[in-house]
Amino acid sequence: MTGKRILIVDDEESLRRVTQLRLQQAGYEASTAADGDEALAFLQRHPQDLVLTDLRMPGMSGLDLLKRIRQDYPEIIVIVVTAFGTIESAVEAMKHGAFDYIIKPVNSDALRIILARALEHHELRREVQSLRTAIDRKFGFESIIGRSKALLSTLENAARAAQSASTVLVRGETGTGKELLAKAIHFNSPRRDRPMIVINCGAIPRELLESELFGHTRGSFTGAVVAKQGKIEMADQGTLFLDEIGEMPLELQVKLLRLIQEREIEKIGATQPVKVDVRIIAATHRNLQAMVENGTFREDLYYRLAVIPLELPPLRERPDDVPELVAMFFHKFKQRLERPDLILPQTLLPHFSTYRWPGNVRELENIVERLVVLSPGPEITIADLPEDLRRQRDPLEAIQLELPPQGISLEAVEKELVLRALQKCNWNQTKAADYLDISRKVLIYRMEKFGLKKD
Questions:
Q1: How many CB atoms lie within 10 A of CB 101?
Q2: Which GO terms describe its biological process (predicted)?
Q3: Helices H, strands E: what count in the chain?
């Protein structure tokens, strides 16, 4: 991340100069400003990647400077510097958008680590945005909308994977957007200008799948009146997406393994192999590890495919994303089906959020389209909703509990529940206690009992 532009804001000239020298020696392009006003004037003329600012300064405080930067330059990372006795102020700065804080006296090694982590995080966010732009431009953004932690983690890893040629295995239930993610990885990769060939291993009869994948020579079998190029050869220099890889017969898994290892294929009826250069992305809704254990999927192929595993979470595990998806699909179908004045009341959204969505995002999209088509009045009512959505559910139904046969620790479950409530409420103890329907005193007791504290 060297070469990045960093602005140091501090009213102590000697500290400014020392920090500037340290950062320049580390390879950064470092500039300085003596106060908040000078910093803002500098930012108007010189774009920066990161601002390192002291919190206690005469005139405009570091907190006020942070607020101005977040308002006018939201893409700039801000790290605050504080004395040991004012850590509470640094925490307040974090609430207003600071990436991190560092305590005086500034340790050179600690500063370099924090800067590197902040800039890497920023770069990943840019890559995720680029990935999302690719999805939006080519295929529509619908099936990958959301801000849940699990989804964002998958997108960040996908952004990293896109820049490599490594094999990717996308796992997720039907309707979670596996193909959409695979296409986004391809179109955000160095192979974006080369073909991406998609083949569904479960949709092609077993007797035809080998020919579809590898091709055949003329006369190699009855009906082969002409030579045929296979999908793998068509994807040369590009990407091959193997959807539902778990449906591939064992005899073809051997040939796919050879493709990955040797970068060559053998057509049906051919006497010589053909060299190919393809990047493989596979996807499945099945548990390949379980299939390996019962002998229906090759172990060596599994590990060759799962170099970079990506998990798309089911919609029931990210209920906070449902209202955003509903709003997006509703707007889309109102325009497409020419019902721009149709209203979906906010009071109906809890019915969507508490539904289990076994068909995931695809099911949600279909239901919203059906509502736009069939709702007779100017406003969608509860009577228009499918029966499964009309039924109000107990909040306990939203909790996923997989009880293991060997038993489970109730205390461990309680600890996990308290932890998740704190994370959901951004570690606000009052809100977390309300969420769990307990007193704040009881919550604090549980936190101390389980050793729970924010990192």
A1: 20
A2: phosphorelay signal transduction system; regulation of DNA-templated transcription
A3: 19, 14
More confidently predicted of 394 and 29: 29
CB 221 within 8 A of CB 260: no
CATH class of 142-311: alpha beta
For domain 5-122, the CATH class is alpha beta
pLDDT digits over 385-407, tens only?
Answer: 998 888 755 555 556 666 677 77
Could you name the CATH architecture of 410-450? Orthogonal Bundle (1.10)
CA 438/CA 167 separation, integer angstroms: 48
Bridge-partner residues for 6, per DSSP? 30, 50
Helix or strand or coil: residue 268?
strand
Cβ contacts of 104 within 8 Å, gap of 6 or more: 81, 82, 83, 84
List the one residue out of 140, 277, 269 whose CA is nearest residue 217: 269
Would you say the C-alpha torsion 162, 168, 169, 174 has a positive or negative sign? positive
Q: pLDDT for 131-159, tens place per residue?
A: 766 665 555 334 467 878 888 888 889 98
Q: 263: phi > 0 → left, psi -120 to 50 → alpha, else beta; which? A: left
Domain 5-122 and domain 410-450 have a common topology = no
- Greatest alpha-carbon span in the chain: 87
Compute the distance between CA of residue 248 and CA of residue 244 in angstroms, rounded to an integer: 8
Provide the CATH topology of domain 316-396: Helicase, Ruva Protein; domain 3 (1.10.8)
**DSSP annotation of 225:** -
**Nearest residue to 304 (alpha-carbon basis) of 286, 292, 290, 313:** 292
- Would you list the DSSP string of 370-427? HHHHH--SSB--GGGS-HHHHS---GGGGS-----TT---HHHHHHHHHHHHHHHTTT
Q: Which residues pair with 343 in a beta bridge?
A: 379
